[in-house]
Write a structure and sequence with these properties.
The protein has four helices and three strands; from the N terminus they run ββαβααα. It is mainly α. It folds into two domains: 30 residues, no CATH class; 40 residues, no CATH class. Strands 2-1-3 form a three-stranded antiparallel β-sheet. The longest helix has 13 residues. The chain is extended. Bound molecules: zinc ion (ZN).
Amino acid sequence: MIVCRKCGFHNADSDDFCGSCGSFLEFTGEKVAVKVPEGFAAQAEQEAAVVADRRRAFETALAGTLPGGQLTILAGYTPMLELRALMHERGWVGRLREA
Ligand SMILES: [Zn+2]
């Protein structure tokens, strides 16, 4: 991982420019080794599961996220709209405006 000294953004080792501020990482980046706790990868692989129903997948992922933790969801456009609707149901976000 390359941390941008200008803005603090975490970039991939293969990035040449900062994904946040656009700085040339050769000048502003600091390469940082990511320490993965022992057994983490094995445990994560064991716990990984495919959940076909997106609502259930969302609930399962939320249940597995520690309080104050961060849940990152990579979704295509249609699943993103469904997730947005679920978050709207909970009052977390407003309605997504569509043209
Ligand atoms: Zn930056």
